[in-house]
């Protein structure tokens, strides 16, 4: 049975959260707003627009629409300066092993990310060619936990949602996968991701046999 394995990007394939943090922190400080790593946690999987809205809310600030879009571009330029220095060394442990196994087993592979920079990042870390389809922030209109990003991935691959397996590090992403009727696999902390069907700390804990079982499971 051919299944689709849908990967989130930030926190699953690469740890770009640290670069988002540095860029948002610089922006927040320029507005006189403090910004902690704990607050950054809450921005994981959240779109760029919603992230800035939250930061302004935390700082009790209202700004014009024009300034809002200027700040978004500034943040993205700063973020892209970090992305420019990325290479394959930044791929999270054992992600290539799992991707190679899926390719060997002839399974479909998709990216399901909120990021508008997803394609550029995959190219920088030389993983772009491993994906049969890419759905990212440029294709979706509704942010996770809305299941749109994953449903579009399933549709592009011609595989029913029940036969899709999603790897996600964010609570919103796990919710999105569950709402889409897909198998959800949390990558990260069990307590945080308790709504997922399975949780692993990282890909080093995922064995080929586990993947094979998912592939063999018949959905009626
Ligand atoms: C990622 C990050 C979020 C970021 C979002 C949009 O989502 O987790 O922190 O705000 O993309 O990114 P950009 O500003 O590059 O469009 P994901 O879905 O890959 O975890
Ligand atoms: Mg993520």
From TrEMBL:
Pfam families: Hydrolase (PF00702)
Binding sites annotated in the UniProt record for Mg(2+): 8, 10, 168-169
Cofactor remark: Binds 2 magnesium ions per subunit.
Catalytic residues identified in the record: 8 (nucleophile), 10 (proton donor/acceptor)
UniProt keywords, alphabetically: Magnesium, Metal-binding
Cofactor section: Mg(2+)
One Gene Ontology biological process: carbohydrate metabolic process
Similarity annotation: Belongs to the HAD-like hydrolase superfamily. CbbY/CbbZ/Gph/YieH family.
Protein name: Beta-phosphoglucomutase
Species this chain originates from: Aquimarina atlantica
């Amino acid at each position: 049975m051919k299944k689709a394995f849908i990967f989130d990007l930030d926190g699953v394939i690469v740890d770009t959260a640290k670069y988002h943090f540095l860029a948002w922190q610089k922006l927040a400080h320029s507005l006189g707003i403090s910004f902690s790593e704990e607050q950054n946690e809450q921005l994981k999987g959240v779109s760029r627009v919603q992230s800035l809205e939250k930061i302004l809310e935390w700082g009790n600030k209202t700004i014009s629409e024009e300034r809002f879009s200027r700040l978004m571009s500034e943040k993205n330029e700063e973020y892209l300066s970090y992305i420019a220095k990325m290479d394959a060394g930044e791929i999270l442990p054992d992600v290539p092993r799992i991707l190679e196994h899926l390719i060997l087993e002839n399974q479909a592979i998709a990216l399901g990310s909120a990021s508008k920079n997803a394609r550029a990042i995959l190219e920088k870390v030389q993983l772009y060619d491993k994906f049969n389809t890419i759905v990212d922030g440029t294709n979706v209109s509704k942010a996770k936990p809305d299941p749109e990003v994953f449903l579009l991935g399933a549709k592009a691959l011609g595989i029913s949602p029940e036969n899709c397996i999603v790897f996600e590090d964010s609570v919103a992403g796990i919710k999105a996968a569950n709402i889409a009727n897909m198998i959800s696999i949390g990558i990260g902390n069990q307590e945080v991701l308790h709504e997922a069907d399975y949780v692993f700390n990282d890909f080093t804990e995922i064995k080929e046999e586990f993947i094979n079982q998912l592939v063999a499971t018949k959905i009626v």
